[in-house]
Design brief:
Keywords: Membrane, Transmembrane, Transmembrane helix. About 75% of the residues lie in helices and about 5% in strands.
Amino acid sequence: MSPMIMEEDDLVEYVNRSLNEEEEFHFLRFEFLQRLNIVKLQLDLVRLKGQFQSEKRASIQDLEVLERTLEKYATAIRNYQFLRSKAALGKAETRKRKLLLQRYFQSKLNDQFHSHYCSFHDAEQGIDPLRRALMRYMPSFLAFSSEEKMSRPREYSEGKAPREVSVSVDRLTRFLVAITGGIFLVVPMIIMALHQSKTKSLVTVSVCIILFALIMALGVRVSNVETLVSTATYAAVLMVFLGVSN
């Protein structure tokens, strides 16, 4: 059997195994090659720039070369940016993927599989840390939405984390946020109302504002302006109660 036929057999076997055993198809980002290509095009453009400035003229052929090089340069940057926007695999999954490729193709390509490995979904999914934690640790029958149970039955049966926020996760998150907001208002008011002391009240207000700001910054995905407005509003409510109680 010729080497070409053997390589084609390995390719088909590798892809069939991926279809049967894996939900996603992971790929190499080729960080070194992408950067090498961009730098090479940069140098070509620098040489053209120097040529035009030294000769103080540009022929039609030179302009055509410039147009093609600029188009390649822009395309290389867009491609590199697109690949970097995809979610990177963790260390354990990267090692598994590298070993699989080595097992199928090591005899032909040597050890050239050390690279960044990615999946096809975007790295930034817009899910806040609280919902992401609930999606990871809640039981699968609650964490998975009805649509995702049908589209990812194997992952659902294996207890893996879902990708989409289910109705149960969303409602539980809203409930926890509402309860936390109530606690942050009621607890400091009770502390300041019992055995009133100006020093104790000021310390209570300061500590609660700092804790509230930390939760807003780390636990909820909101913009900087929303974080500032929420913290300032909470501080104003506490200061009003502090003034009334005194």
